[in-house]
Amino acid sequence: MHPAFSVIFFTVSSGAGFGLFALLYLSDLLGVGGGLTPRQVSLAGGIALVLIIAGLLSSVGHLANPKNAWRAFSRWRTSWLSREGVFAVAFFPFAFGYVGLSFLGTGSEALRLTLGAVATLLAWITVFSTSMIYACLKTIRQWNTPLVPANYLALGHYTGALILMLVAVDGQVDPAPYYHLVLAFLVAAAALKALYYFWIGSPVAASTIQTATGFTRAQVKLFDAGHTHGTFLTQEFGFQLARRWAVLLRAVVFVAGFLVPFLWLVQAGPTVSGGAGAVVALIALLGVLAERWLFFAEARHVVNLYHGAQRC
Amino acid sequence: MRLGLVIDLDVCVGCHACAIACKQWNASGTTGPLADYQPYGAEPSGVWFNRIRHFEVGEYPHNKTINFPMSCMHCEDAACVTVCPTGASYKRAEDGIVLVDQDKCMGCNYCSWACPYGARELDRASGTMKKCTLCVDRIYDEAIPIEERQPACVLTCPAHARMFGDFDDPDSAVSRAVREREGYQLLPELGYNPTNHYLPPRKAPPIPTDQVGKPGFKERLKTFANKIVKR
Lengths: 312, 231
Known about the structure:
- The complex is a heterodimer.
- Chain A is mostly helical.
- Chain A has helices at about 5-30, 40-60, 80-105, 110-135, 145-170, 175-200, 210-215, 230-235, 245-270, 275-295; one strand at about 220-225.
- The model of chain A has no long low-confidence stretch (mean pLDDT about 95).
- In chain B, about 20% of the residues lie in helices and about 20% in strands.
- The termini of chain B are far apart.
């Protein structure tokens, strides 16, 4: 698949934003580390909303005819893409209410926490819907697995936890629980990503050029694709990643995304400084961007069987 | 009604006339125009509803070239319609034709991701997804003679390798051809239940090739005559 930057940025940015929001709300609700101050809640909430809005705006950049984007809210009963949009928009009034009441410090606590609870639920559903956009496609074996929603949720919460830790280390709450939250999500996300790479690499039942053409008893080779230059199909689905680049980028995912942040955090301990934490978070985000780029680049659409691929 | 095509791989000669006829008709049809990018330039490309691939089946000397036209299969379980977030993609209840409402499409490409057959192509000029309409603006046109109320690709095929008809009618030409010639669907394991079917090449005894190169008496006489007659 062609790795479109608008979609890569959208899934990473809004994933981190929704993960941050959910963890922020739970920390606020449970009083983790002594309870976040209203200033910390509104700061983290603001960052979450900025990340989500930036991601959603970026996703509109993927559309070839954005003037019809409003229609995407209509087919939520069948389309995961539509559901993603509906739930993302439904999230905003509750999220703005929660963050706004935290910032102003007015209104009843029960109302504030109820708004936050609904927004958190919608945040989780939205990230799940985003991942199901890819996971529901039978045409792409590398995406059609429950590990995809698991990866999206784990990575969103991991990057969100990193940002929440940055907000929590300003000395007003005990940073240790936030630090351990990051480590827990880091290990979970790294393990799920490793499982995913194992899964897509191991031979399972896949469509072949034989099932694509119906000549199941003989060797089949593409003789001529029938077009002079590229087509929409070769541009959108023909992207091929050389094996050595795939290996290198997977190393980047694990080193930048998980190993460096892990070593740095373990070495620094729970009292990690804000500056160092920001560097760690940036390195981790770069790793997750590489992960998302690979997620698209390594996906092999079955239409490639009609353009020379033997199996997908 | 379940309208669709049957493509006879036994007689398709791979001339691309169906693709040309399709482009010609649909460029001015309901989803036209179909954009071309650099049509006379170094990298010609554009939107086509019908593309012909060529495969080599088997290994030399037991090999065969198969010409393989592909357009929208008008699937019974059309995932492209299910995933469409705007409702632009739809499958007509009355005849099963899958269409894209050009006024609703937002060009997100998602339907093309869901289609295993490569039937959908984004038109960069209009920003909308375009696909085979089964010549819906032709097959119901009462202003043209009844024998011409068929898709442009079917009408133009010089080898009669394409058939159009109703798969719900067990006595239609397409149903009968599929039944008698063991017509099959592409990528059946994905479960889209495509309407279009392909007829495999007929089983024919191999043409003897071991006598080639050993001329008989007549051939030897001709060779001798050719040697002595000066041209």
